[in-house]
Design goal:
Radius of gyration: 28 Å
Strand content: under 5%
Number of strands: 0
Distance between the termini: 38 Å
Length: about 290
């Protein structure tokens, strides 16, 4: 204590004891809040336990499943295509084609619709609500369900897979694009209008340059995800490598299954790497703290 004043502390040097003495209400433990958190955690654990009982998930079954999985993995080694390597490559290329065509087509269709779903473009609340809910309905149906629907409509093959991915991504990208448009800086559009531009000029020269990198990044992310989705929907007959996977799992043809799984893992890893680099080149690297 110097001259009746507390000792000088450098900026940023906080005395917790002094703060607690000055603001006791903020440092006093709230037993009511702790009881609420504890009750919520107990309720979640009880629900988890009930779900495991109802779904007949037992430690014995889990342990037996792990042992059986280990047996399958051992039988997959060493991987051997048994002369079907180039058939696998062709199917993998078809899977990539399904993902690429579906993602790009969905992005092209979703872009104009997303402007109708953005509040700062279409201020009419009824039009905005109708477009948003329509996109939500479309994207709420899983790709596997869309694949089963389109297989019954257009028949087996990759065309049904492309249509399934278009349907799912149209809803998802439309919603994300509209949110990116709503998050743009309004001052750029006001500047265009103040110079005599109309609403189309505002969209072209103020909004699109701001949202285009975000849209491109989202499309690349969806393409990464769709490579995996295209593999899954192929199991129900929508083309690609999934049909080989389903057949070999059903027939316990495990050595060719091993090399096919390996090829899928390598392909997905390479696409993730390339896509990440392109995405960072478009939107830039985050600043280091």
């Amino acid at each position: 204590m110097i001259g009746g004043h507390p000792p000088h502390r450098p900026p940023g040097d906080v005395d917790p004891a002094a703060l607690a003495a000055r603001y006791p209400a903020y440092f006093r433990p709230s037993w009511r809040n702790r009881a609420k958190v504890g009750a919520l955690a107990a309720a979640m654990l009880a629900l988890l336990f009930l779900a495991m009982v109802r779904l007949e998930i037992t430690p014995e079954r889990f342990a037996a499943g792990l042992l059986r999985l280990g047996t399958y993995v051992r039988q997959m080694l060493p991987p051997d295509s048994e002369g079907r390597f180039w058939f696998f490559v062709e199917a993998l290329v078809q899977t990539l084609g399904i993902a690429f065509a579906g993602t790009l087509t969905a992005a092209i269709l979703a872009a104009p619709v997303s402007f109708l779903a953005a509040r700062n473009i279409v201020p009419n609340i009824f039009a905005h609500f109708a477009v948003r809910r329509g996109l939500d309905v479309i994207r709420s149906v899983d790709a596997l369900i869309w694949a089963l629907i389109w297989i019954n409509v257009v028949g087996l093959g990759p065309f049904a897979g492309v249509l399934a991915i278009i349907c799912v991504d149209f809803g998802g990208l439309g919603k994300l694009f509209s949110e990116a448009i709503e998050a743009t800086d309004a001052r750029a559009g006001e500047g265009v209008i103040s110079t005599g531009g109309n609403q189309l000029h505002r969209i072209r020269f103020a909004l699109i340059p701001q949202v285009l990198p975000v849209m491109a990044s989202q499309v690349l992310y969806f393409f990464e995800s769709n490579v995996r989705s295209a593999t899954i929907i192929g199991i129900v007959g929508a083309g690609g490598v999934g049909q080989y996977l389903a057949e070999m799992v059903r027939m316990l043809d495990l050595q060719p299954l091993g090399i096919l799984v390996f090829m899928i893992l390598v392909t997905v890893a390479v696409i993730d790497l390339i896509s990440s680099r392109i995405r960072l080149a478009i939107i830039g690297r985050p600043p280091r703290s």
